Amino acid sequence: MARRLRLGMVGGGIGGFFGAAHRIAARIDDRFELVAAALSSSPERAKESAAQVNIASYRSYVDFEEMAQQEAARSDGIEAVGIVLPNHLHYSAARAFVEAGIHVMCEKPLATSLADAEALATLVAKQSVVFAVAYTNAGFAMVREARRLVKAGAIGKVRVVQVEFPQEWLASDVESTGNKQATWRTDPLRSGRAGSLGDIGTHAFHLAEYVSGQHVESVAAQLSTFVNGRRVDDDVQMLLQFEDGAKGMLWASQVAIGHSNGLALRVYGDEGSLSWSVVEPNLLKLARPGEVRIIERGSASTATPVRLPPGHPEGFLEALAQLYADFADAISAYKKGTPQSASFLPGIADGVRGMRFIEAALKSTAANASMQKLD
């Protein structure tokens, strides 16, 4: 069996959801070994968190730039890093590791400005490292099956794409109660100017492009803030214009009471349609005139990789694990000097498009929901 890749992590200290999710996902397929981390900017918390995940004290850092430099200088230094930080730190952390020649898996959004995202893409190309963006929904087996079916022409020419991502957890002023996740996500200095737009709207946008196989050309957006005193948007509604003529609608809301996490996608073509929901992630509905099929993950008709047989559900962690498996494959190809085949893995270009989407939506809202191009 091939040696595990040495992995580092920045952010994601003990008590946070996404850090634990990334650590579990990276180990599911036994492709990575976590050996170093900067889990907190607090020395005490960093040390405590490192001990709990079995990282040696001398490989625990409080500064990600120091970590990048020191790990790059070690003969047994990390080969890849997972960045699980608040949005405003994504760019600077990613830049530090890319400059050090270390492969990166970064949470979205890529940055808090399009200029930073583009600068990072230029650096990635210069350093020739593998760079992945954690659009986790791209790892679900039935999302990949939907993408494959659209590409194969199973529903004909795509006409309409509808995507929604409703959540309820910010329906009240929870940021004032000490909820740490809500506090930074509603602080424009840490989340960027986009609230729900950047947090979950980017996931919805990526899913729409990922499955449809089309790029969004322009958007007409209305961002709203329903909770009094909140400094960022908590509801996003927009129209989408795709490059090949398809039309779309996107709704992302964190004030939608009754929905804990309701991501759903519907793609309509001139010969059929596909629909998928994260609530039932192991099922995909394929409809044609007079016929409706429910395709189950792992069934004989699917061509996507699975870890468990039908009837044994896979979920969020397995989807994120699939991204890490793809990440490991890309790094292995890089080490061998072999060109990568077409990959399902979201990369730096996807991250830049996510920032173009955010910028266009903000411009559209400021211009009374007029249609704005993704420049």
Automatic annotation (TrEMBL):
Protein name per Swiss-Prot or TrEMBL: Gfo/Idh/MocA family oxidoreductase
Entry-linked Pfam families: GFO_IDH_MocA (PF01408), GFO_IDH_MocA_C3 (PF22725)
Top-level lineage group: Bacteria
Molecular function terms from GO: nucleotide binding
Residue stretches making up the Gfo/Idh/MocA-like oxidoreductase N-terminal domain: 6-135
Domain GFO/IDH/MocA-like oxidoreductase: 143-274
Organism in which the protein naturally occurs: Mesorhizobium denitrificans
